[in-house]
Specification:
Length: about 375
C-alpha cells in the first residue's frame, strides 16, 4: 500500500508542513497555523485523502479541543469581565453579525444568485460550519431534497473567510491603533492561579467536561417559526462547560503548557481536516466561472463587517486591540482568526476573554440567521 494512502500519514504531513510554512514571515507578517488549512486544501486537490468518517470525527474533535482549552484559560476571569463590559462587547458582536447578514441579502438582491448558494457563502465567509449544516437541514425540511450548492458555497468562501479576517485585523492595527497601545490591563483578565503551575495535568475534568459540553451542544432549542431547533453544537457547548468548570472549580485546572498543547493540537486537526475536505473540489469550483464570484461575495461578507466593527470598537467603545480582535473572532465564529490574534497577544488574555464573552450568543445567532434566510427566501 502506498504510504500516502494512510490517513494518519496524510493528516500528519498536512499539519507538519503547514506549521513549518506558518513560521515564515513575509513583510514581517506570519499567518501561523492558518497555513495548515491551505496545506490541507493542496493535499485534497492532489488526491491525498483521508477516510471520510475519520475526517469528520477528527474535525469535530479538533474543534472541541480548541474551544475547550479557550474556556479553561479564560474561565477564572470570564464573569468579572462580562460584568465590566460584556454587554458592550456583545452589542458589537451583534453589529458585526447583522452587517454580514445585510451584505448577504444585498448581494442576493443585486446579483440574482440563489439564496442557497449565498447562505453557503455567508457561512463559509464567517467559518460557521453549524450554520451551513442548519441551512441544509432547513432546506431539506421545506423542499424534501438537498441543495449541494450550500456546501459548495461554504467550501469556496471558507479559505478567504480565514485569511480575509486576519488581513482585516492587520489593517485595523496599522490604521486604527497606530498611536495607541494595542492592549490594556483589562479587569477581566484571569487571577494568578497557582494550580496552573503544577507539574501533572489533570485530565479527568477535561474529558468529563468535553462529554458534558457535547451533550449540552446537542440539546435542541425550539424557536417559533423555525422548522429546525437551534443547537449550540460541538463548539458552543464545550466552550460554555469549560468556562463554568474553570470558574467554579479552579482546582481542576490543568497546567498552562498542557492547555497550550491541547489548543495547538485541536486547531491544527480542525484546519487540516477542513482543508482536506474542501480541497477535492476547490480548484474545479474556482475555474468553472462562478467560483471566483463566490469568493468575491464571501470576501465582502467577511471584510466589510469586520472593518466597520473595528471602527466602532476602536472609536465608539474605546476597546483595546487585543480585546477587539477576540470579539470579532467570536462574532465571526472564527477559530483560526482567534489563533492568529492570540499569537499577537503575548502579554494578556484579553483576546481570549473577548472571544469567549461573545462566542456563545454569536454562534446561536449565526445558526439562527442561516435558517431564517433559507426559510423566508425559499418559501
Amino acid at each position: 500500500m502506498n504510504f500516502l494512502d494512510n490517513s494518519l500519514v496524510v493528516l500528519s504531513l498536512a499539519i507538519a508542513i503547514g506549521k513549518l510554512i506558518g513560521n515564515i514571515k513575509i513583510l514581517g507578517i506570519s499567518f501561523g497555523v492558518t497555513w495548515v488549512l491551505f496545506t490541507g486544501i493542496l493535499f485534497g486537490h492532489l488526491g491525498l485523502t483521508v477516510d471520510q468518517d475519520l475526517l469528520h470525527f477528527l474535525k469535530e474533535f479538533g474543534l472541541v479541543l480548541f474551544v475547550y482549552s479557550i474556556g479553561m484559560q479564560v474561565g477564572p476571569g470570564f464573569f468579572r469581565s462580562f460584568r465590566c463590559g460584556g454587554m458592550g462587547l456583545n452589542c458589537l458582536a451583534l453589529l458585526v453579525i447583522l452587517l454580514g447578514v445585510g451584505m448577504t441579502l444585498l448581494i442576493f438582491r443585486m446579483t440574482g444568485i440563489s439564496i442557497t448558494t449565498m447562505v453557503g457563502v455567508m457561512s463559509g465567509a464567517v467559518t460557521n460550519t453549524p450554520g451551513m449544516g442548519a441551512a441544509q437541514q432547513a432546506f431539506s425540511e421545506i423542499s424534501s431534497h438537498s441543495a449541494p450548492d450550500i456546501a459548495l458555497g461554504y467550501a469556496v468562501a471558507y479559505p478567504f473567510g480565514v485569511i480575509g479576517c486576519i488581513l482585516a485585523f492587520i489593517i485595523i492595527r496599522k490604521t486604527f491603533y497606530r498611536t495607541s497601545p494595542v492592549s490594556s490591563d483589562a479587569e477581566g483578565t484571569a487571577p494568578a492561579d497557582p494550580v496552573r503551575h503544577s507539574d501533572h495535568p489533570n485530565l479527568i475534568p477535561i474529558f468529563i467536561g468535553i462529554a458534558s459540553g457535547a451533550l449540552l451542544g446537542s440539546i435542541p432549542v425550539p424557536i417559533p417559526g423555525i422548522p429546525q431547533p437551534v443547537k449550540l453544537g460541538m463548539a458552543g457547548g464545550p466552550l460554555i462547560v469549560s468556562i463554568l468548570i474553570s470558574h467554579f472549580a479552579p482546582k481542576t485546572h490543568t497546567t498552562t503548557s498542557a492547555n497550550l498543547m491541547i489548543r495547538e493540537i485541536g486547531i491544527s486537526l480542525f484546519l487540516a481536516c477542513v482543508g482536506l475536505e474542501a480541497g477535492e473540489h476547490f480548484v474545479d469550483t474556482l475555474i468553472n466561472g462562478s467560483g471566483l464570484k463566490w469568493i468575491l461575495y464571501g470576501a465582502l461578507i467577511t471584510v466589510v463587517p469586520v472593518m466597520i466593527g473595528g471602527l466602532v470598537g476602536r472609536y465608539v467603545l474605546k476597546t483595546d486591540y487585543n480585546t477587539l480582535t477576540g470579539v470579532i473572532s467570536g462574532a465571526c465564529t472564527n477559530p483560526p482568526a482567534l489563533a492568529y490574534a492570540e499569537d499577537q497577544d503575548s502579554e494578556s488574555e484579553n483576546t481570549s476573554v473577548g472571544y469567549a464573552a461573545v462566542y456563545p450568543l454569536s454562534m446561536f445567532l449565526r445558526i439562527l440567521a442561516a435558517q431564517i434566510l433559507i426559510v423566508i427566501m425559499c418559501q
